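Dear Dr. H.,

I hope your travels went smoothly. While you were away I took the liberty of generating a structure for the chain from your last submission, since the lab meeting agenda had it listed for discussion. I wanted you to have the full record in hand beforehand rather than looking at slides cold. The sequence, exactly as received, is reproduced here:
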Amino acid sequence: MALLDKDGVRLTVDETVATVTLTNPAKRNAQSPALWRALTEAGRSLPGTVRVVVLRGEGKSFSAGLDRQAFTPEGFEGEPSFLDLARGSQELLDSTIAEYQEAFTWWRRNDIISVAAVQGHAIGAGFQLALACDLRVVADDVQFAMRETGLGLVPDLGGTQPLTSLVGYARALEICATGRFVHAEEAERVGLANLVVPAGELDAAVQDLTTALLAPPRDAVIEVKALLRDAGSRAYDDQRAAERAAQARRLRDLAGLSD
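The corresponding predicted structure, in token form, is as follows:
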């Protein structure tokens, strides 16, 4: 069932699984503010039954990044150009970027697990969108790159934290500062990809992973995701306390003693 189909984004839901598809393969799924608003709307439209969200892009590329039209004086029809935004107040610029970032934040919600199925180019904003997901299954032709610094900019769509968490500070800095391509073998080796498969097997591999993610009880998966997401920011003893609290909730629930 399609719940949304607009501005290069389609959301379909089949009971516990939602699929968000980027639908502009002619432009290699280049991104725009309208697309970001549609992605935000997709997140807000998820039914409570959804446990896994799969993100994919139609065509040969997952997403080639920001549509360069954003940097032209005319920008996108009905939108302020990036040049106009730069000339405006700091407050407006900050709030506008914050609005754009919302498209990249909801994928990490504790009540869902998000899986990016990535093939071909995942450049700049495309790389950051793949990084927004919890897991990444990639085709063997994948090409990740963070090209913002080459344009005199920085990655600002939420990608710097997960990138650093996955590959470490030094490698994250090198990837961002050079803008070089990260191919499939390296992506798997350094932790950017959970799994690399031949391009023709990408959909089947994502389906297998989705089936495995749906196998355990939902509440246990929610609790473990919350534990793991915050583990890096907690002291060891605080993490042990969080484990005890989570396990107590699970045991009480299994015993029928939940509030």
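Two observations you may find useful: The longest strand covers residues 9-14. Strands lie at 2-6, 9-14, 17-22, 52-57, 113-118, 121-123, 135-139, 143-145, 182-183, 195-197.

With kind regards,
E. W.
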